[in-house]
Write a structure and sequence with these properties.
Layout: E1 3-7, E2 11-12, E3 18-25, E4 33-39, E5 44-51, E6 58-59, E7 67-72, E8 77-82, E9 91-97, E10 100-101, E11 105-109
């Protein structure tokens, strides 16, 4: 059973930075993509994705140039480094692999 656990969400001021982590366990097939989604008031948006075997990550236009996705296969973890945060980045951020989802972590950008 695949299990995903996000952490690192917090309240941060506009312009600030935050690092989210996704701890991954139970994945037995390869290759696979680990995705970061965020759920705002209207929709769930795919914002970044990375394959465990490498390659170019994907970023949505809304986060490109501000967020960086990375992986540490030895630690079975994927990270999302977020910078230049804006109030519109406020959302619950989810880690996803296939049909499996974490519980989400809240990011609030506010002064």
């Amino acid at each position: 059973q695949v299990q995903l656990a996000e952490s690192g969400g917090d309240l941060v001021q506009p312009g600030g930075s935050l690092r989210l982590s996704c701890a991954i366990s139970g994945v037995t097939s390869a290759p696979y993509a680990t995705n970061w989604y965020r759920q705002g008031p209207v929709e769930r948006e795919l914002i970044a994705s990375i394959f465990n075997l490498g390659g170019h990550p994907y970023y949505s236009d809304s986060v490109k140039g501000r967020f960086t996705i990375s992986k540490d296969n030895a630690k079975n973890a994927v990270y999302l480094e977020m910078s230049q945060l804006m109030p519109e980045d406020t959302a619950v951020y989810y880690c996803n692999i296939g049909r499996f989802w974490g519980q989400g972590t809240q990011v609030t950008v506010s002064s």
